[in-house]
User: Fold these one by one.
Assistant:
Number 1:
Amino acid sequence: MKKQTDLKSALGTFAAPDVTMKELLDVIPPHCFQRSALRSSVYVLVDVLGIISIYRITTFLDAFLGASLSVNLVSGPQFYVFRLTRFALWSLYGVSVSLFGSALWVIGHECGHRAFSDSKFICDTVGLLIHTTLGVPYFSWRISHSLHHAFAGHMTKDQPHLPFTRSAFNLPPADPTNENTLDSGISEEASEALWEALGESPIATALRSMAYLLFGWPLYLLTNFHGPADYPKDTNHFNPDAIIFKSHQYWQVMCSNVAVVLWATGLTVWAAKSGVWEVLTVYGVPYLWINHSLVLATHLHHTDPLLPHYRDPEFTFVRGALATFDRTVLGKKGTVTAWIFGHLFHGICDNHVVHHICSKIPHYHAWEATVAVKRLLKSRGIVSDGAPVSWAEAYRVWRECRFVEDEGGIVFYKNARGIAKMRPVEVESASGK
């Protein structure tokens, strides 16, 4: 190999988890599996009241600003100060409402997992109402999301956030004389060739990340964006005959479609009566922020240079469930911001590993379950915590996670220079070290 960069000393090694599902479930206190429709409904009420309160306060302040502008007949530079103030007010409204809207999204998500209540009817009724209000085809999403949980971390059977492979970028196969795809040894020549094909400026990465965060979710629903590559090109969440669905799920998909049509009709009528600008300001901006929060969190849960992806026969449900990170939000564990946002989002970021171990555990019990599971994982040397969710972390992950190899039972992301941070422990043992 020509001038191979010595990367082995910088690489961590990964041994596939040897813990069993029985061991994981046995350490969780029994009461954590208990669901209460009444208790879950309280969280829905709090989130809805949060949205209403923010709207009321914003419209009151907006009316006050409008009245002041009218009375004082402000002109010149002062007029633009008023306009800027109103823009800032409604921008703050959009972000604030999206926080509670994202929290409602999480509750609807729990309904899809039957974690809201013991009653399937209550779960589906509440989930359909919440997710339709947020523009989500509830039943269609629930079906594909169940596949995500069944095959999390699988290279071909997982659903969203699947890694791109070397061949997906139309890159030529690795030349064995310049690159060892198993242990990430690579020559300077091969590394530079990959950078020429995949490298991008920091600004380009930031713009790509922004577009993905804002529009990745609707594109996934409409076009299977970042979904399984072997699905037909016309795959989407609104076609009941799509490969995602079984024949007996036809009417569930149609029910979601009807609900989404009613939602779109409601927005259209609202726009006709009050103007498109009002709909965009009151609903559209928070909607985009909610999409952003959803994609930001889920992408970071399942994407990191330290997280494995599996192919058969290495994949198991337990390995997939543990191929994710718990992450606090906007602050390290123990900080005030992490506590506030963690509880505001109902712990979906802080307790994501437990959620994949048993998705029927309601969020208010997931905190305790996470403590118990982490104690076991730590004793086995299994890392389950990532850095806090933030734009900076998303940028780092986008820079370091560009592609994985087309071969290998356990693979890790490589950056645009073909360098990985982890390799399976079997590679180390095979090399005689």
Number 2:
Amino acid sequence: MELEEGESADDLWRSFLSSFMELQSRFIPLKGTGQKFIQPKWFNREIRNLLRERRTAYRQAKASGDFDGHRRLNRNVKSKIRAAKRAEEVRVARLCKENPKEFFSYVNGRKPIRRRIGPLVNEDGALMHSDAENANLLNEYFSSVFSEESGPIPEPLDSFSEKLESMVFTQEEIERKIIELKANKSPGPDRFLPRVLREVHGEVSRHLCMVFNRVIQTGCVPRDWREAEVTPIFKKGDASQPSNYRPISLTSIVCKLMERIMVDKITAHLESNLLLRGSQHGFRQHRSCLTNLVEFFHFVFSEHDRDKAIDVVYLDFQKAFDKVPQPPPPSESACTGHRRKCGKLDRELAK
């Protein structure tokens, strides 16, 4: 699998994608379950054999009229099933941090009622029954909610000397990020499986390094990275209104891999040049909502000890994500100290 140096970012990506998928289909077999009914994970061989013995004992008891043996076996089967279910719940609970996907799958499977999407109502009040109509209606709504800045955006003042003019990706940091991928994550539209990437990280990191650096040099991302598989999640209110659903997007695993490396580089630049205020606790290492609350309560009680009055105002934005301008303004990139190609890349990724 060789990539040409002179190709564009999109050509490099498509060459890598086609070669990788061909090798994946050739050397990684697919296994079908072949079962219409999927057995629960607590169902084991011992329980299966006990169920067979119970059926046999029932037929014998029905013929002889003596059900004592069948009753004892039935109590034993129920006891084994309860113990197997408890063991499965303990296993899922222990793995909830490492594998939250399995945890929520188990919880959702225990719900007596599962919420379906729709049927939705359009602007004319007509009820949409088919999946295609509901999907088109949600797509139109999700595409219409983004805000656009109508007035001029003020330019930030450059109060720093060091600027992050460009980025260079290395094979070592790409390998490190691939190893950190969670193997049970769902793939995006490009069908890259995190588990497969982790198994061949030493080989693919060299090619991804070439793709990532070409993306940074040109400021253009491959077209595949702009696609996403969108799942509407119901929040609250009337389930027939599209405005009460929020989109959850599954994007390219490889694109998110590059974004994580970019975040690390930008964060390191901001931290080293003291461009972040001390009051910012979100999206910073070793800081969280808990540290923000601790600092806030420390300030409140310190002022209270000095007999000073304190007024607290809480603000919340309804549908805050919809209010974010798309694409982001150029000044947003400029205020962090990274310009030119990096700022253009931010806008490309936001499309």
